[in-house]
Amino acid sequence: MALSPGVGALPKTSAVVRLLGVFCLLLSWFPAYARFAQRPQSVALALKVGQEGSTDLYDEAHRPQFHFTSPKNWINDPNGLVFYKGEYHLFYQYNPFGVEWGHMNWGHAVSRDLIHWQNLPIALAEENGVMIFSGSAVVDWHNSSGFCHSSNSEAPTCLVAIYTGHSPKLETQNLAYSNDNGRTWTKYADNPVIDLHLGGFRDPKVFWHEDTHKWVMVTVLASQHKARLFGSTDLKHWTALSDFGPAGATSGAWEVPDLFPLPVDNESGQTKWVLSVDVTSGGVTGGAGNQYFIGSFDGTTFSADTADRTLWADYGADFYAATSFSDIPKSDGRRIWVGWLTSSEYGKVLPDAWRGAHSIPRELKLMRFADGIRLVQEPVAELRVLRQRHTRVEARSFTEANAVLQSQKVRGDTLEILAEINPGDAAECGIKVRKGDGEETLIGVDTRQSQLFVDRTRSSEYSFDPRRPTRDAGPMALASGKSLRLHIFVDRSSVEVFGDRGETVLSESIFPKLKSDGIELYSNDKQARVLSMDVWNLKSAYR
Ligand code: FRU
Prior knowledge:
Elements: H1 5-8, H2 15-27, H3 31-37, H4 41-45, E1 73-84, E2 87-95, E3 105-111, E4 118-124, E5 131-140, E6 158-167, E7 170-178, E8 186-187, E9 201-209, E10 214-221, E11 226-232, E12 239-244, E13 254-263, E14 271-279, E15 289-297, E16 302-304, E17 311-312, E18 320-324, E19 336-341, E20 354-355, E21 357-358, E22 362-369, E23 372-379, E24 387-397, H5 398-407, E25 415-422, E26 428-436, E27 439-446, E28 451-455, E29 471-475, E30 484-491, E31 494-499, E32 504-509, E33 518-523, E34 529-538
Parallel strand pairs: 1-20
Antiparallel strand pairs: 1-2, 2-3, 3-4, 5-6, 6-7, 7-8, 9-10, 10-11, 11-12, 13-14, 14-15, 15-16, 15-17, 18-19, 19-21, 19-22, 22-23, 24-34, 25-30, 25-34, 26-27, 26-33, 27-28, 28-29, 30-31, 31-32
């Protein structure tokens, strides 16, 4: 992949940056790194940070307080999300040696509530130059693999991880298993379990297909823009089932597929399958993005009902490689996924020891809209445990509501906001967060364009890459006189916005100063009204 013209245009004084550029060029064949190498390095150096906030671990000025980060070092995709014996397991792409992408391992953390995470030792380590790329994990409930053993008379069950082994020219699918609740892992002696003698063949997501009684694996043939499906009865021997694609967005490479069924809300008995596939470029903001298809799956073939159009799960710049939990009990019944908040791309200038964060966990649903069935996302209810000080404003003009917010000193660098607003005749209105000292992040609606947007052009001193939109927007059905709902999560270096029922979502990284913690409603028309607005300060999940 060619390095961006931006690097060539750097001033002579930037010798270090040039060296960095050559380094990036050398590394650019790495799939995840290729995206970062496209960014002018000068952009990264434009952010002045570190002069404020604490240097204590988990209290750094931009350290997320309720999003998952690793104590230190680089992380990217969430991997192997699985629920087993009361614990949610989160594995993740992890470089134990530094704050840049490389030497991929599976880092590991567990949680009982999806919010508070306990860090565990590395689960799967790079070995003999073979990196551990993204993949999934399942509970082998009936010991179909023969990997499970039990110390008592119970029928043995165990955790099985399915991951890509990456070496410079080859990607293969491999297994590892754990008989101690994920605390230690053994790589299968007969790995790989699928070898097509190809590079760009990765990111296996495995699930049990009840109707045809077998394991199904969905992978990508990245540069062919195909999802390739395989079937197995023992997780060890796999047969190719079918290919899906090219379809939808086909720029860059396809990565990190997921395939799962979801009931259509309020339509009893109606279930559809969702195939989610990321693209490394040409996403809805021009960069990397997460697209999905809705259709059916018969145990062999996925057929999309939506192949004629490209659907995006998130309209922000920073949601990628989302993957859903396996084995959430039927009594719970939720489909929950987590994505990578790709801030690591430009957040690499942070002076902190950590690099990269995950999104909040989101519950997925399908709902019918005027233009068809669409994926909707909702923050998981568990996040409510973080709620602290609460302020509620009802039935006020924006001016009156701002007076209340001010008099009650409502502000914060970690907030949850749930607002129902009526724009009246306003062409644009919304909420400013992380406001102060010339900084602000706008979350608003453009009623003329029927769009929900996040404008981070003034979020911080960070000068965004000029080739990328500084204001990202997604479609939102807005009718005259109609009110709309905004559900917003603000953290030290991100905003996630869920519009109406969660059909339009934007996730964005921002890097404001810690003391930029103001909140204010704004509108270009006096008739805009707050029907209700709840603001909670959120406590840290880490301190
Ligand atoms: C997505 C990705 C995956 C790959 C992993 C490597 O961000 O490129 O396709 O498995 O990251 O870190």
